[in-house]
What does this fold into?
Amino acid sequence: MTRIHLDFEYNHTNRARMNLVCCHLIEDGKQGIDYWLDGDEKARFALKELLKEYRDAGDSLVCFSATAEASALIALGLDPTKFKWIDLQAEWKMLINHNSRWAYGDQIIDGKKKTTKPPKSKWDMTEEEKRDSDHSKPDTNLVACAYKLLGVEIDSDHKTKMRDLIISCPASWAPEDRQAVLDYCRSDTEILPKLLDRFLDLYREDPARHSGAYTAEAVHWRGETGARAALIEKTGYPVNREKVTNFAATVPDILNDIREDINRQFPEIKVFVKNKDGSYTAKQKPQMDFIDASPYASRWMQTDGKKHSLALEAWTRHYNYQHDYPEGNFPAQMIRFLKTKQNLNGFIPSSGKKTFFDTYSDDGRARCYLNPYGSQSSRFQPPSTGFIPLKSAWMRSLIEPLPGFAITSIDYASQEFLICALLSKDQKMYESYVSGDPYLAFAKLAGAVPKEGTKDSHPLERSRFKSTVLGIGYLMGPISLAAKLTADTGIPHTEDDARKLTELYFSVYDRYSYWVEETIGEYRRRGFLTLPDGWVMHGDNPNHRSIANCPVQGTGAAIMRRAIHLSQKRGLKIIFPLHDAKYMEHPVGELWRVDVLANSMVEAFGHYFKDPVVHGWSQAIRLDYDIWGPDLTDGYVTTPAGRKVKSQKIYIDPRGKNEYERFKKFFKKPDTEKEQNHA
It folds into this structure.
């Protein structure tokens, strides 16, 4: 097997097929080759034919970001999933995953040299410490990786200058600019063989070297994940042009609407004061008074001036409201405002910062970087700025297919609960899942609800135990869980209440509790933890809850990657993954595709559970279905295999229905003729 190191330069990245400017590739043991591609069909053809030869020979393409380079192959008309990939960016992300030796110390971050050290818990730092500390996480780009592993300093200013030149899309290239871009592309490519050799040396000494994490199969799988992410990104997801344009133009009106609504709810204090110029100022005193009177005043996050912080993070530490914000509940309404403001930032033009419209193309589709292996547990982690599905639930109604098409989402129901049962082989946990309502089952096992009880007969008890299950799944400690219990049930819960419910959870599911302790102990002893498809979390994670949760979330992430692999191989058009769900676009009449996607997800879920008993348990996984499109009506449709799928004309997330009804007026352009919905 020969290794081919390559790098492309390109522009128009929000298009289905971006414009290729140039490429440099180095075949092992040979001189590198330059290809100028912008406007040169002959060069594009020659490169495409050479790449096909590498593909047919089973050679490996070595790059830094398989997602980027696979997108370049798509622009050449090649299927990137037919190639073998070694993605050094994915390897770098894994190397610095809770590995203080490489994640801290001398680094280049944002183009500047820094010396960093592992941080304290974020709850133990003031906002000043967060702003001024040297606990920065390492960058995941080539500049940071080359500096840390090779001691090579890539000129960040020159890199920025070249990228700015490339994305300026000149109609014609001056000879000196063309040569500068070729030299720039070549210099990046020449680093790749050295980096790969460095990684191979590190793997030979790594504690996880015998875990299967560094086999050719595991490395190629991580590279393939990047290539499959490129297919999803270049497909994009459809967004209603008229609605998103009007919506973005009325962002100030949306925020003012919330401000006035909060003032209406609390007329005696009127948190927001309207100024003469039409702007608003938030009064601090009523917020400070509320915090001082709360049970959390003594441990409220502080500013550098030793005052209570009014930042979103300070509120959400003690009050857990995510999509539903009860009327007349002061902390819920402050979180509502701050979260909406945060979510709307991506629609406001801002100097030097990217917005949603940087991902939005003339064809009416958004193409956002999915950031594979972006989290410690290896999940996709796209930037929320340009990715509508990560914004407030009511904003997802902007995602609309064209007439004749539909979008189907399939979500694993309570996936992490079942994964916990499978990893720990906890029979009671498994039986709770197959009961159809694991929260009520937990309440019954705990003695809080009689065996004949239902969600209708014992709604409060079920709510408490549901919050406990979900809170433990979110790694909540007593403080955060107490806040969630209070928010979800409407009844005040103390930290002691939360602590008792947590202890009850681990008492009821004792086999799972034992597995948690064993997982943490093994991680401490071995100095690493490996997921079933080879991703590694190294041994410097001090948070025991995070350690225990990583195999659960990480197994879910591995399952998602396997499901994407199966779905794409079977010809499905995946437009994005989100948490435990996959979203697919298809002709509205081809409901058989829903069955293919569902079967792929069930098959993927069982893939990593090889034990016969546990594999059998894995087939109990339940799926939740939604489908929407302009040709559908509100109700249900049935697939050829008999699956009942909830249908809507426009997708309205039930968690955000109230906010959608309030803000849908901003999707329309007032007092004008309706424009065509889609480009």
User: Anything to note?
Assistant: Residues 3-94+144-235 form a domain with the Nucleotidyltransferase; domain 5 fold (CATH 3.30.420.10).
